[in-house]
Every structure is written in C-alpha cells, then in structure tokens.
Amino acid sequence: MKLGIIDIGSNSIRLVILDIQGTSYRITDQIKHSARLGQDMSADGYLDQKRMDYAIQVLAHFAITMHTKGVREVLCVATEAVRRAKNQNQFLSRARKALGTEVRILSGLEEAYYDYLGCVNTLDIKHALAFDIGGSSTELILIRNRLLVESVSLRLGSIPLMEMFDLSAKATDQQIERLKVFLIDQFKMLPWLSQAKGLPLIGIGGSVRTTGKIDRLRKSQGEFIAHNYSLDRNDLHEIASLVVNWKNHSGQRPRGLPRDRDDIYTGSLILIETLADYLGSEKLFVSGAGVRDGILFEYLLGNRKFVPDVLEFSLRNFIQNHMSEDYDGEDLWQITEPLFDQLSSLEPEIRHMKKVMKTTTFLHDIGKNINFFQRDRNTFYSILNAPIHGLSQKQILLAACSATSGSSDDILKEYLGKRLLTQRDIRVIRKLGLILKLAKAISYASASNPAPLEMNLTKSKLEIYLPDQITIQFAREDFSFHSHEFRSSFGVALDFFQKKNPLPKNAGH
Fold first, then answer.
1. For 188-202, what is each residue's pLDDT tens digit?
2. What is the average pLDDT score of the chain?
3. SS3 of 26-60
4. Which of 28, 235, 254, 404 gets the most CB atoms within 10 Å of its CB?
5. Cα 195 to Cα 19, 23, 114, 120, 192, distances in angstroms
6. How far apart are CA 20 and CA 297, in angstroms?
7. b vs e for 335-349, b when ≥16 Cβ sit within 10 Å of the residue's Cβ?
8. Facing residues of 19 across strands?
9. How far is CA 355 from the centre of its chain?
10. What pTM, to 2 d.p., does this model score?
C-alpha cells in the first residue's frame, strides 16, 4: 500500500511516498520545495499572498504526483507558519481543495512529540536533548530512558532569527554576540533545561543536516550518510568560524552549504553552537528523522509508539524490502552469535562489537541481489549506504568491511588512508570476518542436517561438534584456508569433532 506524508513547514514543503507492508516500510519517492511560508509575513501575522499562492501550486503538484504513483492514503500536517497565521482558514480551504484531503495543524507540543517519535525509533540513544530548527520555530525535547520528559516550541526558527538580527547578507561580531545573548536569555526562561546539562544533543532539520554535511566534507567523510552522524562541540565552533568568515567575505564558501540556505543558515548554526555551549554538550548527533518519521511510526505501530530494539527493527525492515527469497542471514546468526559470544571472551577488542557482528551477519550477502559475481563489493557499498538505525557511522563502516573481509582489502587501504579506520579497526574487522567465515562454513556443511551449535572452548582450542564425519569434512575444507589466521587472531586452535553425549562439563552453547 502506498502512503503519502506531507509536511507543510515554514521553510520547506515536503512530500514523502512510502510503500507500506504491515509494519515494514520503504521510501519510494521524496519531493521538496522551498516555499518559505514563514517569510514575509505581515506585521499583524498574515501569510504573504505570493508565498501562499506558490505553496498551493506545490500542493496541487503533489496531488498529481501522488495520483500518478498510486498513493492510496495521505497524511498532511502543517506547522508554525500556518499555525499562527491570521489567514489560516483561507490557506487551509485552498490546500484542502488542491490536495483533496484535510490538513492537520500541529500544535507546538505535537510537533515536538512527533520529532521525539522519529528520534527514539531511529537512534539508539537513551538520554538526550533533541531539538528541531524549523523555518519559524524550534522545538526542544528532553529525553530520559527513551521517554519524553519535557518539551517546548519556541519562535526561534531560521527565518525569524535571520530577520531579527539582519543575517541574510552579513554576520558581524556584534550581530553574532547580540544573537547569542538573546538565545541564552531564551534558554534561561526554561528551568527544566538545566536537566539536560551535559547530555548529548540530537539535532533535527535542514540546518542540522547542513552542519553535518559541511563537517563530513571538510573531514573527507562524504561517504557517510547524514543520519546518526556525530560532531564534537569543537567541530561546531570551527564550522561557525568558517561560515561567519565566508559571510563577511574573509573566507571561502563552506563545501556542503546549499545555495537556498545562504541567507537563513547563519542564525540556525549559531543557535546550535550556543545551545551546545549553554548545556556543556560535547556531542551532536544528526537525525535524519523528524516530524514526518514520527507520523509514520505512529501509523505503523499504533499505540505501541516506539520499537523495543532500534537496530533489530531497522534490520528486519531492510531485509523485508531488499532480500531475496533464499535469504539466510537470520538463520546464520543462530551460528554466528554463539561463536561470537565464546570468542569475544578471549578478545577485548571485539567484546563490545555484538551489534556490528549481528549487522554483518544479517546483511552478509546482500550484494548478490545486484550481481552475484561482484557480490562482496556490492555488499560493502550496500551496507555502507543502508538505512541501518541503532549503529554509529563508524560501526556501519566496520560491519560493511567485516562482511567482505579478505575480498575488499583495497577498500580497507583506502579508508585507512583517509584515517577513517585505524590499525585497531583493521584487527577488529579481521576477527569479525573470521567469525562470519567460520559460521558460513558450518552452515554450508550442515545444510542437510542443521542443528543447534555445540562447542567447547579451552585455553588452547575451540572444539566444535558436528553431527557426522561428512559434515566435519566439508566444514574443515571450507575453512581450511583461514585456520592459520584464526589461530593467530584468537590465540586458540580450531578443530571439529563428531557430537558426543554428554558434552564435556565446560562446553558452551
């Protein structure tokens, strides 16, 4: 079933079209128009007529697009600009006629709530201060133990900040200082904000994504996707300096800054920087998920509201949408997991890599869906660019490398050269890759007689028990090329034995 979600924001109007199957979803199309409904509003709060006319044209075009794409259901919301417009009814009447569906105006707290749902279902972060900088407002959301504790909607969007402090064409030291003083005064009026001191920030909105993109490009990390990319507070200070220098014609234009944000970006960036300084937050996580995603998760999950395991949900969603009928990743995990649990007890370097190991296993052969004979290289790039939630960008890179370890050494050298990987990372990749290869060898050998994995780990040997001699022979043959590397990596030898009953007392499962 095709679902359309429309977000009429103060800066942009967006349409996302999704294919929905049960609780799984896949984005099939996305369209954005910079209508800037929140700009040029009259002093008494009326939407500008020309901007409103353009917004209606956008919505009419969306209606045609959705009809062409076979959209069956539409959810449309509007935020701050329409929320406070004196000519709101006129706009809603025209929008309803253009779309053929009702437009729901979200309150500031509802907007914050959907931001929260979008974040909590796509980021594995328990405690944070989330914020969404829109065209006309900014929402702040305090999250503790994945629960929404406090929220507020402030009229501090990118457009009013630009207009109030005249930041469209220049950004002098005096303007920036006045803006910072103003923002701190606004923050001080929120007593509960002190509860967010020292917490990481989760940023939502185009200005935050732009900040992440500028940082990725200046660090030669353009391969990473936006969602869950993280910056340090020092990164924010350096980016602010780059942007202000460019704005004042004393530096180059920052790579990654879209032309349509030339005038409104500076105020938003200073808001991000000032909020981080005010709270002493050392990390900013970029969220590609916000209001539209929150609305989607409410649609998918109903009263459950949020998923219990972010990574598990996103992996299963990805598998549902992209894997072939002979997919075996989840079955392979039944072998990989106990192997990992045993071997990670020997190796502190991989002890905290279970989520990476799981992702590596679940998606280990996704590349064969593109080209079987180039499956490893295709697997690497598919994992690296997959919408995997619950892992950091570095963890996704480790999973992509581990799934193709041994066949993508040229890629490893490239990322090592870019300083995206360290020698320690290479060792982790080799070890996770070996565990995957061993699991695949056992899986292949046991194809006609699958059974729960039984093993025994001693100080010098990992003994794996298989049902019969032919299975043992196949497993040995398939893994023989890696036996020496296994011993040097884990410090134990590997051998296969026919199952005995009972197993030795210290056998693992």
1. 999 999 999 999 999
2. 92
3. EEEEEEEECCCCCCCCCCCCCCCHHHHHHHHHHHH
4. 404
5. 40, 35, 21, 19, 6
6. 11
7. bbbbbbebbbebeee
8. 2, 26
9. 15
10. 0.92
